[in-house]
Amino acid sequence: MAITVHFIGVCTHLRKKDVPGLPVPHRVFVAHARTAQDFGSGTVPAHVATLEIRPPGAPVETWDLTGVRVRVVTSAGGAVSYGGSWGKCMPSLSGHGRVKCTVDPNVVVRGTPDLADAYFDVAAGTFEAVCHGDATGAKLTIDGTAPRLLFSGLTDESPTMTRVLADGTELRLAHTEPTCTGDDNHHFSMHYLVGGKAKIPTGKKTHDVKCKCEPDGDMVSLGPGCSNSEYP
Length: 232
What we know:
By secondary structure, this protein is mainly β. The protein is built from 2 helices and 16 strands.
């Protein structure tokens, strides 16, 4: 039975082929944005990163993610793959007439704590783009037995805590705040923290395109500005 991970809100997807310094094929970057900030497109309210652990038939646990690297490992190997919905729906930081974006390794690889709240690292599994209302989110399916959830510091390889997961557990990583359901097009600007605060580009950093993929159940409904994105 598989582990399913849902990425909700402002989560930025990076691939090793585009960011060679990454230690895994795919990293989900969650910016440190716990105070309101102005990115030139409007003031973005504070967003908080949380991880829900939802074992089948058991109570939900909610974890606050601050300065943490998260991984799911199983007995199976494999690679990271992407379904057809990924290329169809996942917004690009540089595409759709937006600005050219560059990453800062200090932010997305070396774990500058005032800019990175969490990394979710993926060594194997299949990604699909899904809709959370009008926002584009992501769903990751990880096969294999004996699944474990590893927590460590942002740049640490050895886990500080290991959590054994029941088969069929669902994880929900959310980076949102209450107004993500309303006038939130400018919230998309937070993705550009991958380049560091000094390199926030000028130009179109908002996102108003409604998701056109399949809905991810009825778990949450967000506006398009609180979509996931992919670098570059």
